[in-house]
Amino acid sequence: MNQVSAVSGAAHADARRSAECAGPVRTLDPYSVLVPLREGADGSPLFLMPHGGFTSRGYRSLARLLRPDQPVYCFEPVDSNGRVLVDVTVTEQADCYLKVLRGVQPCGPYYLGGLSGGGLIAWEIAARLRDSGDEVGLVVMFDTYARSCLPVRELPWRALSVFAWYVRYQVLLDVKKPKWYKMVRNRAGQFTNILERNTVAELLVKARGKLVAFFVGRPHRASVREVSAANDDADNRHIRKRYAQSLLEDRLGEAEQVATLLPGRFTWLDRLALGLLKRSFPFYARVYASSCSVAALRSLPAGHRLRAPRSGGIWRSYTPPPFDGNVLLFHASRQPPGTVDDPALGWREFARGRLDIIDVDGDHTSIVKSRFAADRLQEHLDRNRPEARNPAL
Predict the structure, then answer these.
(1) pTM across the whole model
(2) pLDDT-derived band at 332, boundaries 50, 70, 90
(3) What is the pLDDT of residues 373-383, one digit of tens each?
(4) HEC string of the chain?
């Protein structure tokens, strides 16, 4: 790994020693949270952060699209049994990941990134590193919102925008397509998913088992390791699905609570829009419900006492600290309907250094699989390396 020899001093050593002496965070296992997606190459690695049970497999496409000599690591919030944890706060994950990160790369520059809430963890770690005197080369965020609640349009325009989005993407672009096109696209998606979840060696082993079962006439007996891995994946998928459903229920519960306080605010338009979003895209439904709740609460009288709504997730109480380093923000072109689209996603208030914004065609989760985004990311990683900034070194 590329280490800058100029980074030294007693202050840095004391800060690093105090971080290493910190105990484990809640039930996180500090020895199993780091997953190498690509290692063994020279150069400063890129550390990617998780979000809401988003495991390292979600970043495999991104790591595969980067340059072959670019090391990539991903953190996972797991316990000692390998089960994914989804209720760990940003600061708690930053405490654990920072300790592991310093063990892998003792000196900067550090390159951090993440999708959605993972970008908040990367931001928190980067701010702590800069406060301790370490160098942060780049912070990469994929469609990460600085605030958990986005500004929404006024009624009836926000509900009408949801109806227009639903008709365009869910009706016209889906119903008018022929059946054979849907089948081909579904098979292509399944094939892509298989390639992302398995290496070439694993695919060859599975193909050999299928051939043996076909010609010999007896079923292929999977190894204990394969069965255990499949069971762990099924458990983690169930945990992530249950977590997403609980988030949706909390956001809708907050919306219902505010609707009782303001009878004229949440009309049948908002209720119908929430129903369409819940049916088609739960993530958009969560953002829409939470944003509508905040907009309604701001219009309450100043002396009105309100019972605090449910938290609705671990990201709601986090406020990003100011950061004066280089930041790269990928902005998804398909934002939640009914909200006010801000290309900076609220980060101009906290980014005191250089903020580069790149628009990517896709939705909230698909942009990490975009070749265009991977190429722009590699360009910024190369541009922010010490040898690129200081050719004389």
Answers:
(1) 0.75
(2) very high
(3) 999 999 999 98
(4) CCCCCCCCCHHHHHHHHHHHHCCCCCCCCCCCCEEEEECCCCCCCEEEECCCCCCHHHHHHHHHHCCCCCCEEEECCECCCCCECCCCCHHHHHHHHHHHHHHHCCCCCEEEEEECHHHHHHHHHHHHHHHCCCCEEEEEEECCCCCCCCCECCCCHHHHHHHHHHHHHHHHHHHCCCHHHHHHHHHHHHHHHHHHHCCHHHHHHHHHHHHHHHHHCCCCCCCHHHHHHHHHHHHHHHHHHHHHHHHHHHHHHHHHHHHHHCCCCCCHHHHHHHHHHHHHCHHHHHHHHHHHHHHHHHCCCCCCCCCCCCCCCCCCCCCCCCECCCEEEEEECCCCCCECCCCCCCHHHCECCCEEEEEECCCCCHHHHCHHHHHHHHHHHHHCCHHHHCCCC
